[in-house]
Design a protein that fits this description.
The protein has 307 residues and is of the alpha+beta class. It folds into 2 domains: 63 residues, no CATH class; 228 residues, no CATH class. Helix 5 crosses helix 8. The relative contact order is 0.16.
Length: 307
Amino acid sequence: MKNTYHVDINTPNKQIGIDVPNGSEVTIRDDGCKVWIDKDRIWTEEEKNESLQKNDTRKESSISRTKSRVDTRSKNKIMRTLEKQIDFSRTHYLNTWTYGTKKHGFNKEESMNDIKNMRRRWISLFDSNFKSKSDQKKPFEFPNQYWFLEKGKDDQYHFHLISESVEPDLLCKSRNRDSFKYKFNTIRRRILDRGQPIITKQMIEKYPEIYKDHKLIGRTYESISAYDDWYIARFLCEYMYHYQSDQRWGLKNLSNSHTNNHSRVIEDATDLKHKIGYFNKDRYFMLNDDYLGHLVPEHSDYTLQPV
C-alpha cells in the first residue's frame, strides 16, 4: 500500500504536483488550491495549552530582561552634558530636603511645583526684583542650580540640589538690604543657638573617606565666618523650610535633618563628579519603565545638547 498519494495544486501559470501522506484531510478552497492536514501532526488540547504556556513564559522573560536593562545611551548623554556644563573649578553646595509629614510628597506634579517655588524663593532672596516669570532667566551673577528629584523606599519624593557657591560680592551686596539682613540674622541665630557641629557623626560614618580627617571636625558654626561656604550652605538649607505665621519665607511642607547635616560643601572636583554619578543611578534609566526624571532640567541651569 502506498504511503502517499498525489495532489495537484493549480496556479495561474503552472500546475504543481505534491505527494501527500495517507490519512491526511484534503480541502479544496474556492481559489482552486487543495489544502491537506496531516492528522498525525494535529496537537491535542493538552499540547496546545502547553505551547501557550511556553509562549507566555517566553514573553514574560523577554519583558523582564528588557526592563532590567539600563538605557546607557540616555544616562551617558546626561552625565557627559552635566560634566561639560558644570564648572568644576568652583566650590558647590549640596542640599537635601524632605517632606515633614506623610501627607505630602507622593505626587510628582506637587513635588515639581515645589522645586519651582524653591528656585524662585532662593533667587528672590538675593534679587528682590526677580519674579520668576516663565520667560525670565535668573540674574547672570546668581549661582547655577542643578535640581534632582528622588523617590525614597516609601515612594515619597525628596529633593537634592547641587548649586554653585554664593560669591562674597553677591552676599555682601545682599546684606546691605534690610529685608535680607533680617532673614539672615534670624536664621543665623537659630543655627548658632543649637551649637551644632559642622561635621556630624553621621557624616563621618557615611562618608569616612571624605570627612574622617576633615579640618572642621569638632567645630561648630559659631566658630566660622558668616561668609564661610559651610555656613552659607546651612543658611540656604534652613531658609527654604523656614515657615512661621509671620515669617513665611520657605515652604511649610518641607523639612531637613540638621543631625545628618543635609547641607554640605563639595570642595573638590573628584567629590563633585562622584555626586553627579550618584544622582544618575542606573535605576533611573531602566528601559520600558516610567522615568522618574531624577534630574529636573526645566528648573535647572542645564541645557540638553547632543554630545
